[in-house]
Design a protein that fits this description.
The structure is a single chain. The protein has 277 residues and is mainly alpha-helical. It is 73% helix and 0% strand. The protein contains 13 helices and no strands. The longest helix has 33 residues. It is globular.
Length: 277
């Protein structure tokens, strides 16, 4: 029995080590490559023999990468903030108020999120052009809400349904309005769900490429995925792999930091409602 438990424990740790290595290797390789220049980029080695930060300096010196980071941060934060605000009110209506067609509304919200981006690109482009938002952060905020809002509505509605009804009834007895119940009773309890959905939506908006490529034109208005994709070297057909890797590391570190900071809230938010009773 002990031998079987020892083998099971060893197998668990071996599997965890394989998964960790598989997940961390691309980022580790990007860090190593970002510290190389010239022909050293094509040498396979666990650590560069002559590490340098020239690639990191170049991405900020030779292009508007600082503006790209600021644009991505502004657009992702704004789209997630608006989505959470709208989704919280929608989740209260869909999760706590009984009305005809509630299931159909939820299915419609879920169906909207299933459309591929390219399917709505042409129609959305016409809307943005008529609104005068082309090459404006507002265009990206509006377009990103196509996939952030349905996701936040669906997850928050599921979480809202699991909150004790006794809390709502007690607040109604004290004369609380639905808005007071939502903002002062439910929202403080929805911290894990808000953190999980907000962070996952932020990552999706931060990494979005197609809308950002289509609705922006100038260098300072582009987001980081587009800026990285459009990096060129001395000639039009030369790719500066060192700078691309450095830029990838720079834009990945904030996401890693956010995930580590809110790890517990993310796990509790995603597992909320999984067990009833």
């Amino acid at each position: 029995m002990r031998a079987r438990r020892a083998l099971a424990g060893l197998g668990y740790w071996l599997l965890a080590a394989v998964v960790a290595f598989y997940s961390a290797f691309p980022f580790a390789w990007a860090v190593i490559s970002s510290l190389k220049t010239g022909s050293a980029l094509f040498r396979v080695e666990p650590w560069p023999t002559d590490p340098t930060l020239d690639n990191y300096a170049a991405i900020f010196r030779e292009q508007a990468f600082g503006w790209n980071i600021l644009t991505s941060l502004t657009v992702a934060t704004a789209s997630v903030t608006v989505s959470l605000a709208l989704a919280a009110t929608a989740a209260y209506a869909l999760g706590r108020v009984a009305f005809r067609g509630r299931g159909l509304v939820l299915l419609t919200v879920l169906g909207v999120s299933m459309f591929p981006q390219v399917a709505v690109l042409s129609g959305l482009f016409e809307v943005i052009r008529r609104l005068g938002l082309y090459n404006n952060p507002g265009a990206l905020i509006l377009s990103y809400m196509i996939f952030t809002l349905p996701f936040t509505v669906w997850v928050l509605t599921t979480f809202m349904r699991e909150l004790p009804r006794e809390l709502e009834e007690a607040a109604m007895v004290d004369g609380a309005t639905p808005w007071i119940i939502l903002t002062r009773v439910f929202l403080p309890l929805m911290g894990p769900a808000l953190a999980a959905t907000g962070l996952l939506s932020f990552i999706a908006a931060w990494n979005e490429f197609l809308f950002a490529l289509t609705f922006t034109l100038t260098d300072t208005r582009r987001t980081v995925p587009v800026a990285i994709a459009l990096m060129t070297g001395a000639s039009q057909f030369e790719l500066p792999w060192g700078r691309i890797m450095a830029a990838s590391v720079v834009v990945t570190l904030p996401l890693v930091a956010l995930v580590l900071m809110f790890q517990r809230r993310i796990v509790s938010g995603l597992t909320a409602g999984a067990v009833k009773g």
